[in-house]
Design brief:
Elements (H helix, E strand, L loop, with lengths): L5 H12 L4 H15 L5 E8 L2 E7 L2 H13 L3 H8 L2 E5 L7 H9 L4 E8 L5 E9 L7 H55 L3 H15 L3 H13 L2
Antiparallel strand pairs: 1-2, 1-5, 3-4, 4-5
Helix pairs in contact: 1-2, 1-6, 2-6, 3-5, 6-7, 6-8, 7-8
């Protein structure tokens, strides 16, 4: 594998452009890792969603299970690499760190692990690329360098995707806030006319109804507007 294969560049390009589903693109990148990196028999990609790790892409169930074993324990080569924004290697049976993870890896037939942090631009780590080997306890240095280069590209792609998702969520929240405000203002106007009161008194009527009925203030306001609009 070169720094990033032609297909890898194509997948990343589609990923950045939104032409492929997020998890689908990550899955193909995980497949490319085991196809092009000697000694890697299984791969997974960890992503931090609001600081919580999850595995949206994996090439076999053992890779997923070993990732999740680390999440449960709160430590392991992947999480250590993410914390350090670096690289962690783990030789099963020879490394005393993370004994519970070592046992799980041994039971899965894994003898060596390489985890590389996914770092986007100037930000901290946004996830990790995990390579599991059933054939070699330690992945060769040239292959390790290739994995680091691949992780650098994937890290930028993941960071951009998470950033776009955060922007989309913010836009949705702002839109909902505007709609909510509009409905409440309509309801206040209706109550001001019906009760011959000011805006503060009208809002207080809505607030007290919300507390009394244990419902959101927006829903109470929507009921007021709907009743007026009914023939």
């Amino acid at each position: 594998m070169e720094a990033v294969s032609a297909e890898g560049q194509h997948v990343v390009g589609q990923f950045l452009g939104g032409a492929q589903a997020y998890d689908g693109a990550l899955h193909r990148l995980a497949e490319l890792a085991i196809e092009g990196l000697a000694g890697a028999d299984a791969a997974s990609i960890t992503v931090l969603d609001n600081g919580v790790p999850r595995t949206p892409a994996f090439t076999d169930k053992d890779a997923l299970a070993l990732d999740e074993a680390q999440y449960v324990a709160g430590d392991g080569p992947c999480l250590a690499a993410i914390r350090q924004c670096g690289v962690e290697e783990f030789q099963v049976g020879a490394d005393p760190r993370w004994p519970s993870f070592g046992t799980a890896a041994s039971q899965a037939g894994v003898v060596g692990v390489l985890s590389v942090a996914l770092v986007g631009d100037d930000e901290g780590a946004v996830g990790g690329l995990n390579l599991y080997s059933r054939s070699v306890a330690r992945i060769d240095a040239p292959v390790r360098d290739q994995a680091v280069r691949l992780a650098a590209v994937v890290g930028i792609a993941v960071a951009n995707a998470l950033r776009c998702d955060a922007v989309a969520q913010l836009a949705s929240q702002l839109e909902e806030a505007l709609v909510t405000r509009g409905v409440i203002e309509q309801a206040k106007g209706i109550l001001m006319a019906a009760q011959r009161c000011g805006p503060e008194e009208a809002f207080d009527l809505l607030r007290r109804a919300s507390q009394r009925e244990n419902r959101k203030l927006r829903d109470i306001a929507a009921d007021v507007v709907q009743r007026v609009q009914l023939p």
